[in-house]
Each structure stands twice: as C-alpha cells, then as structure tokens.
C-alpha cells in the first residue's frame, strides 16, 4: 500500500468536513427566524376608540359585584350555591351604549359614552320572586344603578322564566339520586347495574306545556366518554317548579316505550315481571364506539401554515387591523361572538354583526327527545365558549385571545385562548385569468383572508363561529357544527325519527337554525333595501324580425316596507338583495352591499304551535327592519323556559313600517337539517354542516378594491417572470425561506372547571 495514501484520505476527509460545515453554516445564515422578518400592518384611525365596545375587564366585573352587594339592600348568595329561593347574581356583561351616542363619539367628536354594565339578578327570596336587570355605572367605579327590566320588556320578568343555574342542575341531580331512585332499587340495580356513579342525565327544554311550568324530562345515559350516544332507555319527568326543593316530585317515568306514574310503579311492575326489559351492554369508561381517541397511530405531520414575514394583521386590545379592514370584537355572555364598527378603506360598512340565537328542534318517539327545543342563547353561547387547541381548532400560529365573563359566580372567570384571529391562505385564487388569445399574460390574486373564530360547546354540540374578511371588501359569517349527536333509546317505531347508530342508539332527527343580526351602514346610516333579479323576455331579433330571442333582463324593485322585506323561510327571495346608500359610484349606480345567504334549513315549526312566537325569527330567511334601540336582539334568554308567553317575540318587530332611507338592520336566519347517520359516530364532522351568509360590495366601489392588494401577481410572455421585481412568486426561495418559530404547545381547557 502506498504509505502516502492514509494522509491523502485524511486530507480528503477534512476537506469534505470543511465543505459540509460551510454549507450548514451558510444554510443557517440563509434561514433566519420568520419572526425576525419585517412586518407591515396598515394603520387605520385612532386605536383607542374601539374600547367603547370592549368587554368588561375582570376588575370592572368585580367592582360591579361589590357595588350590588353593598347597594341593593338584600343578601346575595353565590349563584353556584344558590337555592331557587335565594337571591343571586346570574351574570354581569357589558351594556353596549346607544348607537347614536357611540356615533357622536366616533364620528362627531362627542363625549365618550358612559361605560356601564348590565347585571341580571334572580330574586327568589322575596314575596314576588322575579328576574331583574340593572344597568350599573359608571365604570370602573360605579355610583348608580337603574332597573331597566320594565323598559326593556314591558313588564317584570316572572321568576319561572329564569334560565336554570348550574346549582339547579345539581339540585335536580341530587333529587333524582336520593328521592326518585330510592323508590326503584331493584329495577335500577338489576337492569342498569346502578351504583350511584354509572349513569348521568341530560335535561330537556322547554320545561312543560304552558307558562309557569318547570317540569323537565331527564334522559338517562351511561356515564362514559361521549355519553350522549349511550341511552339506557329510562327517562324521568321531574317537577321542579316549587322554590322549596323538598316539594319537588316525579310526574312521570318512561322506560323502553312504556309510561309509568312514578318510579314506585316502575319498580312494582318490574318486580311482578310486567316489564319488557332491554338490558344495555355495559360500555367501558372510554365509551368504546363513542371514544374520540384516534384508532390509528400518528404518521406524517399534516400541513402547517406560517407567516414568513410575521403577521400582516395586528390585535390591539379589542381592535383588529388587517390591510384595508378594521373592526372591534367582543364576547356576549348569552350570544357569543360579536363585532362592531367594521370599516373597509376607512369607511364604515357595518355597525354591528352578531350571533343572536342557535335553535335546535328534535323529533323522537321518546318523551325527552320529542319535547326538546333548545335555544342555546339561554344557556350562554359566550359563557360556553371553549378554550381552543392550537393547531386543530385554529392554525398553530394564530393569535389567541383570552376572554372574561361573570356568570353564576361572584368572581370573574377567564377562558384562556377562547378566541383566535389568523390570516389564512385559502389555497385558491380570489380572482385570476390566463390569457392565450391576442395578448399572452397571467394575472391573479391569492385568496388570503382574515378569520376571527370562537367555538361554543353547549352540551353535546360544538359550534365553530367565524367572521371572515376578504380582500375584495366581502365579509362572511359562517357557523360549522360538530360535537356529538343527541340520541334516544331505540324502540318501537323509532326509525320514523332517525337512523340507528348503534345497538340501542337512535340518532334523532333535528333542525338547526342560526340567527344573526347585521346592522349595515352603507355609505352612511340611512339606507334603503333594493332587490335585483332576472326575468326572461321575448323579443324579435332586430336584424331578423321573423325570429324571436328569449333574453334575460334585469328586474329592479325598492322594498318600501318591513312586510315586503320579510322573506319566509322556504319562499323565493330575490337573488340580489342589497342595502343601498344615498350616494352613487362613478358609474351612476347606488352604492350597496349585497346579502347572500347559504342555508339548507329544515322546515320551521308550524306557526300554530303554542311556542312558535318565541322563535318567530326562524320564520324568515331574511327580515329587514328599522333599527330601534328597544329592539336590540331577536330573542331573549327568558324565551327558553317560557316560550308560551315569550319575553321577546321577533314577529312583533315586523309591523309594515317604511324602510326607505332609514337606519336598517338585517336579521338573517340560516340553518340545516340533521338526520344523524352511522358516520356521526363517534361524532359529527364539520364537512357539509357549514352554513352562513356573505356581505358583498355591489357597485359600492368603482372597481374591485382587491386590485390594490400587495399580493397581486401579473406577468406577460414578454417579461422575465423569473425576475423578483416582475413576479414576487419567483422570490419565494429567498423571501419565504425562514424557520417558523412555533411557540410551545399549551392548553388550559381543564383548569378552573
């Protein structure tokens, strides 16, 4: 062997190591952290004005509680421990100032409106039990309170209309275990293998058939993960209308298709062998088929998105700035996510966009299922806003915002990361054209939009609420439904009311209806409602009079009154319907914003129903009314427990008033029919369960405003489309090559439950 060979090999290895080291060092230099890149956020107007819409801070909530404790002259019990016969604070939320005051402040240089809170109190410990609402202010140091109940609702709110507190649910559960179940020990032990821990209940609403009722069906399930699809066949009707818990009673019992007077009669019939028993196989604690634990191991990581030059939006307190957009956001305890003062290119296009209600109407051949009409605002779409999981509920790099609430407690609570904001590349062009005729060019714009999201988990259902802002001036309101389907015990003719999901599980048919309030201010506060559509007309061909042509033409109509602007759910509605401004664009057209609804709603409950007026907003896919301070919401949290005498009946808003050149509000209803099927096990997916609406500029601008987006791409066959200054996409290896700095994964959803 050549004695020099080892030295040659050593030198060669050293050279290779040196080259590789240089390459690695060079690579590290070329890949800085994405967060170190320059970021640009366009600024739009003063940033502190949005605080007029800001949710109450925990400190402000605490001040309101202290004020009420010291100034009402009654003892207030912690709501989480309150009996029906106690006085307590049910909730404290922001009292949104009157629109006229806010606009004077925002646009006219007027004084900032007083900051106030709205407190809902239950007074059970007095001769005339009732629910009272107080406005408390000014914050942060309250000095006054005023009772606004009669002004808002035309009278006192009877006590039986109050939404159930968590403490009442617990008290009903204790009654079920200690009183009701004590009357049927043999049945429970032998049929359900009851051990005081292995069953849970879901309560139905509304609670009865007439005003004053508070009788609730309790549907029993196995106490396992995903219990909603594990019914055991037993349902108990409990009368908990008395403020004295010792007077509560069982009114009826249902088991496997048969009704009994009470649990004692059920026990007697079972012992005597007069019951058809259907034993349910005991499920493991993880729920078995209802477990959401993945059935496959982790593999290649799913795609992630990142921001190579940092976020292109900013969040300052409750103000969001994104390209030409700006808006304020908040979270109502009852109705959830809401936006205010929405501006595009500095001009307000909407004063308010907010969720109003989520209604579900169930069918079944079991009593609990057939009597269920959930109005989720009564339970609290904001109260049950859930902490979000980074990377699943929202993109990993989204901005997460904590929300605060005071509900059924004397202390504010914080829900970590319960709202997220992110820019999303939707993976498709917002607009594009490839020209291969005459001139050769390509022009396009990536569809990148800003999303504001919250997710409310109300019992078995999870609602994903989005407001989406596009570069062409359009806004989308969207809701996606997921979570577990509610179910009944399969027996008899159950398949008339749904599909079989498991051995004893009937996935029951239900309708979902979602109502939104959209207060558009197009080119100013005063607007009119205009409908454009099409009709075919027959005409002779001018160049060949003996021939006929059928051509579509534009139809136009101004909708003058509220009655004309109320479109029933399944009726034909003009395909172009828009809020028209008093100003015109360059081409002489009234500037407008069009309302476009996406819905597959089921039928509305018959208007002959004794409870229909409480949900009469769901009669209409769209209703446009004059805006009034005394009509702030389409429903009330009190409608759930007394729909027979509704505290707010939306149908009364529509009284044929003129709506030409007025401050108008659009009430939009969207929804879907859900017939659960086997693929709803273990739970429902969002695909196909997404509905909502779009607000789109209609002659509002002189041309598409997205043409001014910095994201546009254009090049011709005569240009060097590999040059960065011509085509920014050619520079991605340079401008977008960075190392995303993903923050550590955290989750606070199991804290402070």
From TrEMBL:
<dbReference type="InterPro" id="IPR049947">
    <property type="entry name" value="Cu_Am_Ox_Cu-bd"/>
</dbReference>
<dbReference type="InterPro" id="IPR015798">
    <property type="entry name" value="Cu_amine_oxidase_C"/>
</dbReference>
<feature type="active site" description="Schiff-base intermediate with substrate; via topaquinone">
    <location>
        <position position="461"/>
    </location>
</feature>
<feature type="domain" description="Copper amine oxidase N2-terminal">
    <location>
        <begin position="74"/>
        <end position="144"/>
    </location>
</feature>
<keyword id="KW-1015">Disulfide bond</keyword>
<dbReference type="InterPro" id="IPR016182">
    <property type="entry name" value="Cu_amine_oxidase_N-reg"/>
</dbReference>
<keyword id="KW-0479">Metal-binding</keyword>
<keyword id="KW-0106">Calcium</keyword>
<protein>
    <recommendedName>
        <fullName>Amine oxidase</fullName>
        <ecNumber>1.4.3.-</ecNumber>
    </recommendedName>
</protein>
<keyword id="KW-0186">Copper</keyword>
<dbReference type="InterPro" id="IPR015800">
    <property type="entry name" value="Cu_amine_oxidase_N2"/>
</dbReference>
<dbReference type="InterPro" id="IPR036460">
    <property type="entry name" value="Cu_amine_oxidase_C_sf"/>
</dbReference>
<dbReference type="GO" id="GO:0048038">
    <property type="term" value="F:quinone binding"/>
</dbReference>
<keyword id="KW-0472">Membrane</keyword>
<feature type="modified residue" description="2',4',5'-topaquinone">
    <location>
        <position position="461"/>
    </location>
</feature>
<dbReference type="GO" id="GO:0005886">
    <property type="term" value="C:plasma membrane"/>
</dbReference>
<dbReference type="Pfam" id="PF02727">
    <property type="entry name" value="Cu_amine_oxidN2"/>
</dbReference>
<keyword id="KW-0801">TPQ</keyword>
<dbReference type="GO" id="GO:0008131">
    <property type="term" value="F:primary methylamine oxidase activity"/>
</dbReference>
<keyword id="KW-0325">Glycoprotein</keyword>
<comment type="similarity">
    <text>Belongs to the copper/topaquinone oxidase family.</text>
</comment>
<dbReference type="InterPro" id="IPR049948">
    <property type="entry name" value="Cu_Am_ox_TPQ-bd"/>
</dbReference>
<dbReference type="Pfam" id="PF02728">
    <property type="entry name" value="Cu_amine_oxidN3"/>
</dbReference>
<dbReference type="GO" id="GO:0005507">
    <property type="term" value="F:copper ion binding"/>
</dbReference>
<keyword id="KW-1133">Transmembrane helix</keyword>
<feature type="domain" description="Copper amine oxidase catalytic">
    <location>
        <begin position="305"/>
        <end position="707"/>
    </location>
</feature>
<feature type="active site" description="Proton acceptor">
    <location>
        <position position="376"/>
    </location>
</feature>
<keyword id="KW-0560">Oxidoreductase</keyword>
<keyword id="KW-0812">Transmembrane</keyword>
<dbReference type="GO" id="GO:0009308">
    <property type="term" value="P:amine metabolic process"/>
</dbReference>
<dbReference type="InterPro" id="IPR000269">
    <property type="entry name" value="Cu_amine_oxidase"/>
</dbReference>
<dbReference type="Pfam" id="PF01179">
    <property type="entry name" value="Cu_amine_oxid"/>
</dbReference>
<feature type="transmembrane region" description="Helical">
    <location>
        <begin position="7"/>
        <end position="26"/>
    </location>
</feature>
<dbReference type="InterPro" id="IPR015802">
    <property type="entry name" value="Cu_amine_oxidase_N3"/>
</dbReference>
<feature type="domain" description="Copper amine oxidase N3-terminal">
    <location>
        <begin position="162"/>
        <end position="257"/>
    </location>
</feature>
